Amino acid sequence: MCYAGFTMSAIIIDGRKTREAHTGELIAKVKALPCIPKLAIIQVGDRSDSTSYIRAKKLFAAKIGVEVVHELFAETITQTEILKHIEMLNDDESIHGIIVQLPLPGHIDRTKVIDTIAPEKDVDALTTTSIGSWTKGKGIMPATARGVRELLRFYGIEILGKKVTVVGRSDLVGRPIAVMCQNAGAHVTVCHSQTTDLISGTKDADILIVAVGKPGLITAKHVNGDQVVIDVGISRIGEEKLVGDVDFESVSQIVKAISPVPGGVGAMTVLALFENLIDLCR
Ligand code: NAP
Fold it and tell me: In the structure, what pLDDT confidence band is assigned to residue 100 with cuts at 50, 70 and 90?
């Protein structure tokens, strides 16, 4: 098989194709709602990566009939001003979901800002209240974890009873993915920056999910031939090129199935975010 110029044996776990397959269903769900869902996205500063993630969300929202209000604030905005603004959005009945695009500038306390979002509008499921819920398998979960779950489901990859290794343990990505897998009945191993023997953590897994942000971290020596590899990492090389954490060229020669970057989890994260919004609207 040939994919993006690589000759390989692995099945490609295609996030764009999976998202496309779910889009019609999402449009129907939006049409069935009593009002048009409206998402507010707060961006502080003009980081180009944040801007491009927001652009992708706006494009998909337009496709499925969801309204997005994108509010861009100068990097110099004070924490008090942001908190006040979030409180205003909390009180605005026409807004169903609020996202604060991360990362925030250093002078702003991320936890304080996130925890100001009303839990019933917390579409990223990042407030302390939401974390308490999804940890117990209730309510919506962070979009990346939901996206990974749907990607695996679409390809008929069972999590129940499987050995899953998650590399990365951030509140935003690694930890929710690990909790999602655990709640789905997997035996989960979590590796992180203090893991002394990464290879023994990754090589034995049935499903390896990598969410670090270090291109080339996972190579042929970290994987086995029966493994499914999900690459969540996104790093920008130069102006245009996006790469994951997995060395696609070598790993795709060995494993059973692999998700590429771009075209893997990223597409599913956008889909899952709007599934979360629809769930909040109901
Ligand atoms: P983060 O907050 O920087 O967390 C990185 C995690 O990787 C940490 O848990 C860290 O361990 C661990 N780590 C660092 N170096 C390591 C190493 N050498 N070996 C093993 N683990 C190591 O980043 P994040 O927000 O979780 O994002 C991770 C990646 O996912 C980034 O590339 C980001 O762009 C991408 N992302 C993708 C999507 C998507 O939709 N595909 C969505 C969001 C984020 P410690 O906890 O010990 O520091």
Answer: very high
CA 78 – CA 93 distance, rounded (Å): 25
Q: What is the fold of 34-118? A: Rossmann fold (3.40.50)
Query: 43 catalytic, yes or no?
Result: no
Whole-Å CA distances, 234 to 35, 92, 246, 261: 34, 34, 10, 7
- The yes-or-no answer on residue 206 being catalytic is no
Is the full-model pTM beyond 0.85?
Answer: yes
By CB atoms closer than 10 A (0-12, 13-18, 19+), residue 28 is: exposed
CA of 237 to the centre of ligand 1 (A): 16
Rounded to the nearest angstrom, the distance between the alpha carbon of 190 and the centre of ligand 1 is: 12
- CATH superfamily of this structure's domain 142-266: NAD(P)-binding Rossmann-like Domain (3.40.50.720)
pLDDT at 50: 92
Q: For residue range 197-242, list pLDDT tens digits in order.
A: 999 999 999 999 999 999 999 999 999 999 999 999 999 998 779 9
- By most ligand atoms within 8 Å of CB, the mutation choice from 167, 173, 208 for ligand 1 is 173
CA 142 to ligand 1 centroid distance, Å: 15
